[in-house]
Amino acid sequence: MGTWLPEQAEDLPADATGFDRAFGLRPDLYGPFREFYAVFWRDRLVDPVVLELCRLRVAQLLGCGSELQVRYQPAASARSAEEADFTEEPVLTDEMVDELAQWPTSEHFTDAHRAALAFAEQFVIDPQGIKGAVRDELRAHFALPEVVAITEALALFDGFIRFRLVLGVEGPTSLTVVDPSDLDAPLP
Amino acid sequence: MADDDAISGSVLAEQPEALVGFLRLYGTLWSHGRLPQSIKEVARLRNARVTDCAYCRSVRFEGAVADGLTEDRVVRIDDEYASADELTMREKVAIRFTDHFLRDPGGFTDADRAELLEHFDSGELVELAAGVALFMGFSKIAVALGPPPEMPTTVIPTPDWPPHS
Lengths: 188, 165
Description:
The structure holds two protein chains of two kinds. By secondary structure, chain A is mainly alpha-helical. In chain A, about 55% of the residues lie in helices and about 5% in strands. Chain A has nine helices and two strands, in the order αααβαααααβα. In chain B, helix 3 runs parallel beside helix 9 (about 120-145). The mean pLDDT of chain B is about 90. The two termini of chain B are about 20 Å apart.
């Protein structure tokens, strides 16, 4: 059972997730959702590492353990800082994930990461408090289209991690890497 | 956040692909869903009140008004909603669900679930949960990025996909 809902979507691939089985009950909505969600990674609307840090921090704040087991491939997930030194692509390192809750003081984050994470926390906890330094720091490190992308992505992370929690959607219990191009493909 | 024009004309236009993605999902949910529009509107307005998005509070969707969500019923979506004769039991359950979603999404009890399932089938609950996720997320965007100017209560077209010309 992928959720406490008494029904779940059927005729899905064997590797379908609990989220697929719950949201897939409404393929008319799940299809457009998947397309929308994929855009942020597929089109690289903003640095995928920033997206991943925001998504994981939202999951931490909302207490969603299963969401914390997911990584999106463009962030080249869970690589060590040592490995990261050998690539020009931005990467999400194990050290970043381990010290995510300590982002204000940890050496593993850039000023841009900190600006995005401060914004993400305020977005989840109290968006009315997004003003002054939080807003200025974000604008200092990101162009306006990137600010819009981060904000829309946060709306999706915040909203659909809660969706997962309220519907009791079961998720992976071990680290799972998702290729966002899979989200673009319709479910059978 | 509410009507297509206000959204399309907002700063969200800085990301046109994401904007189309949102409008497709939001229009489908509103105009091609299974839940009555009045139920979704009650949840949207409850979120607007809790999230404190002035713009979201001031707009009404035509479809919900046509569905019977008149202003004398809207004013009862307050903290005394449970005793409001003007609201149906399904609307009250939708408000309680919205409050849970916003304040304690992980805190559902077996009794909460049983009550939901007395009033909504599984597919309707998925639609309600997806709706509240979008209502909350996009009202937070309006608050975070600076909302459109406040305005008096205004009835606007229900979001649809493809959009009305």
